[in-house]
């Protein structure tokens, strides 16, 4: 997953990054709430780990912004020293998915992350066949069909298609797509994403007449979304 960590204690931030990257996650660390929110305006993540007591905007304020502005219910895990029952209940009621009290333990953190991910994304992500009519994506056979007819895709085009359909409805930043499809390559040209998106849109005929739209989101990235019946006659 692509994970954002809000933590202003550098030693702990480095430790969390090490634990998460050892599990194969991509991690971005922020030491101020305002900086994280600035990043969320143009980047996308699969999970947020928030400390409560941080400079400028605290974790509670960041959570309120996230639940009020993001286009999907991104999972949020609090990791903080505040251990009062009232504090825990307050954050869970405000929209946090889970809550851990410092000092955090590695195995418990990783287990909580896995549990939150299962609850939010569901078990369908493990299904090798993704049905998104009129498309059918088989991740085991690495095939895509449109109206039951196979569509020839390159390896990266297939991986991009599978990623987009599994995240249908979400705005995905170019950096997020790069990390998920091409792996973590700092400084890689985001035009790679644009080129592959254009090819995929044409090859899969991602247009209203097929019930889908793949749109560019200005200064952000892309979103694949279903089209209402009323729009399906519009090109």
Structurally, the number of domains stands at: 2
Label the CATH architecture of the largest domain: 3-Layer(aba) Sandwich
Q: CATH-wise, what's the superfamily of the largest domain?
A: Response regulator
Q: Based on Cα principal axes, name the global outline.
A: elongated
Based on CA atoms alone, the radius of gyration comes out at: 19 Å
Distance between the termini: 34 Å
Strand content: 15-25%
- Tell me the CATH topology of the largest domain: Rossmann fold
What can you tell me about this protein's structure?
- This protein is of the alpha/beta class and 235 residues long.
- The protein folds into 2 domains: 2-123, 3-Layer(aba) Sandwich (Rossmann fold); 127-231, Winged helix-like DNA-binding domain superfamily/Winged helix DNA-binding domain (Arc Repressor Mutant, subunit A, Orthogonal Bundle).
- It is 39% helix and 22% strand.
- It is built from 8 helices and 12 strands.
- It has helices at residues 10-22, 33-40, 59-69, 85-94, 106-121, 155-166, 174-182, 191-203; strands at residues 2-6, 26-30, 47-50, 76-80, 98-101, 129-132, 135-138, 143-146, 149-150, 172-173, 212-217, 221-226.
- The strands form 3 sheets. A 5-stranded parallel beta sheet has the order 2-1-3-4-5, with helices on both faces. A 4-stranded antiparallel beta sheet has the order 6-7-8-9, covered by helices on one side.
- Helix 2 (33-40) packs parallel to helix 3 and helix 6 (155-166) packs across helix 7.
- The longest helix has 16 residues, at 106-121.
């Amino acid at each position: 997953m692509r994970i954002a960590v809000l933590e202003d204690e550098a030693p702990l931030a480095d430790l969390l990054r090490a634990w998460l990257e050892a599990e194969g996650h991509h991690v971005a660390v922020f030491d101020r709430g305002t900086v994280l929110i600035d990043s969320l305006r143009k980047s996308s993540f699969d999970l947020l780990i928030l400390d409560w007591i941080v400079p400028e905007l605290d974790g509670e304020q960041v959570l309120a912004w996230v639940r009020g502005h993001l286009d999907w219910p991104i999972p949020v895990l609090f990791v903080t020293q505040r251990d009062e029952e009232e504090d825990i209940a307050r954050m869970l009621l405000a929209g946090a998915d889970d809550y851990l009290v410092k000092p955090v333990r590695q195995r418990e953190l990783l287990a909580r992350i896995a549990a939150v991910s299962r609850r939010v994304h569901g078990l369908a992500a493990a299904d090798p066949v993704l049905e998104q009519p009129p498309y059918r994506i088989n991740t085991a056979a690495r095939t895509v069909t449109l109206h039951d007819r196979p569509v020839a895709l390159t390896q990266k085009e297939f991986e991009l298609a599978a990623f987009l359909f599994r995240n249908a409805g979400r705005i995905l930043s170019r950096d997020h797509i790069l990390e998920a499809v091409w792996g973590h390559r700092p400084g890689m040209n985001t035009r790679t994403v644009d080129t592959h998106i254009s090819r995929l849109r044409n090859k899969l005929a991602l247009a209203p007449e097929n019930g889908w739209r793949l749109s560019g989101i200005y200064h952000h990235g892309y979103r694949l979304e279903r089209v209402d019946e009323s729009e399906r006659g519009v090109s």
